[in-house]
Structures are given as C-alpha cells and as structure tokens.
Amino acid sequence: MRIGLIGTGRIGTFHAKALSRHARVGGLVLTDVDAERAGRLARAVGATVAPSVDEIFTWGVDAVVITSATSAHADLLTRAARAGLPAFCEKPIAADLPSTLRALRAVTAAGTPLQLGFMRRFDAGYTTAREAVRAGRLGRLHTVRAVTSDPAPPPAAYLPLSGGLFRDCLVHDFDMVRWVTGREVVEVYAAASDAGPALFREAGDVDTAAALLTLDDGTLATATATRCNGAGYDVRMELAGELDQLAVGLDDRTPITSAEPLGPPAATRPWTGFLERFAPAYEAELDAFVRFVLGERDNPCDGRQALEALRVAEACELSRRERRAVRLAEVPDLEPAA
C-alpha cells in the first residue's frame, strides 16, 4: 500500500514516522510547501518527495493522509474525493462550518472513504470508560466532567488560523462526550475568558473556556479548557453514575497536586504535551486507517462523527458570543446544498 502524506510539520512528521514503520505500508510520498523540510523528513524515513501537492494525486498513491495547515484541509479533501482516493484528515476539516459542510458534501457525492483524526477514540483510558458506560457498570450516568489544559500557549501565528478554543481544542472533549456516553448533545451554555496573555486578545481568541452540555437523556456534562496550565498537559474525563464513578487520565503523570495531608504525591514527571500523552493513540488510529482502507475494519470516525463534534463547538461559540443557551438544532447540519 502506497500513501501520500501532505504536510510535514509536527503532526505530519509523527504520522510519517509511524506509517514508515507500518508493515502494510509499502511506500510513502511526502510533500509540503516547505520543500526543504519535506526533503529532510523523507530522507529520515525512506520516503519519496513530491515537488508539489499535485503529484500526490497523479503518482499512483492508494490513499492520502492530510496533515497540512487547517486552511488547506477542505480543498485537499475535495481533491482526494474527486480523485477517488481514501483520505485520513487531521481535525478540523475547516476552521468554519460552511467550508466543512462543502467539503463533506464533496466526499459524500464521490462516495470516497474519509477518516478524521480524533485520536482519543484510540486511547486506552477512554476506550475503557466507553466500555464501562455501555455495559452499565456505572449505573445511570448523571454527570460527566471533561478537562483539557495545555501547559503553554501555542505560537501567536497559530491562533488566528486555529478556529478558536472551542473548535480547535474542546472539540476533542465534545467528541469524547458523544463517543463515551453514546448520547447526543441537545443544548449548550458556554462562557470564555481572554484575561490571560495578550496574544489571545490580539487574535480575537480566548485562553480559557467552559461549557455546560445537556445530553439527550438528561445527563449533564461540563467541558473546560485552558491554554495556560503551567503544571503540565492535563487531559481528563470523570464519569459519575448512580452505582460508581470512573476517571480517565488520572495516573502518576497527571499534573495536579492534592491538598489533602494523605493525598497522592504530585507528579514528578507530568505530561508535557499531546504528542507525548497520546502517542500510542496516534499510532493506533493510523493503523486503523490502513486496515480500513484495506477493507479489514469499519471506519472508526467518519465525516458525520467529526461534523457532530464541530456542531457542538459551533453552538458553544454562538452561546459565548450571545450569552445564552443554544440548542443544537440551531446549528446547520449536512443537508443537501441548495
């Protein structure tokens, strides 16, 4: 199997290295707007360099992996669909909902396979939590708490292109709330703050946000995120039911200190970032993509699943701006184009 990978930045480099080690991948073709960077990576992993993205669609690859800048995702997905190629795309499909819907319509019209990069679906802790909830081991679920905290702000140049904290960061938590519980979000109320570093205000973004989600069975979920958690990278989910409670992401590397005299000690080696924390999950999702393309398994996260998480993020952004509760029915869905 020969795969074309578009974008050799931080996540593209990780994916290229993982795919180069995969037993079912016989060749990699890499391209990037930074040709020198693509060349260095190609030499490191034994891949072929394409002069431009055009060659990815003409050199006979069997599938494409899109890890370019977010602004290019929708166009590349559309090109892959028109070329009849299966695609793996890092989230988000686009930084706004209309562009996302247009790209998904193109994929639907072409009938080509699309897997989105929501890597937490392959994390051992979240998988265990999903199984526990689905098996009823917690009893009736009444409360879910999701947390994502970055240890430091991203580069200032990234923020205007990211889509904002709800779409770029919390969208992972929204996907996990749906995936773990098996329920849909019907209403949100969200708030956010830009009281931290000035680069967020300058980009029109926020550094900290919180959302209250009401699920279709009455379960209440909170999701909070911040870009300014100096203790380390902290991603957790707590699920509370009538019979038991369960926590994801709580281990000896969780960057949190107990105030109790007999509480657990503080982490001596806290998580530093998402690539370290979720490295096994990233590898597992790429293995799933390869096996999905080969017809050996079902799609673990299709365009519809990604769209539903984005719709929650869009509802939260609308709620933040208008300071009101927002029903998910207010956010456009994948209806046919007019």
From TrEMBL:
Coiled coil: none
Domain GFO/IDH/MocA-like oxidoreductase, chain residue ranges per copy: 126-242
Domain of life: Bacteria
Domain Gfo/Idh/MocA-like oxidoreductase N-terminal per the UniProt entry, residue ranges: 1-117
Annotated keywords: Oxidoreductase
InterPro entries for the chain: Gfo/Idh/MocA-like_OxRdtase_N (IPR000683), GFO_IDH_MocA-like_dom (IPR055170), NAD(P)-bd_dom_sf (IPR036291)
Family label: Belongs to the Gfo/Idh/MocA family.
UniProt name for this protein: Gfo/Idh/MocA family oxidoreductase
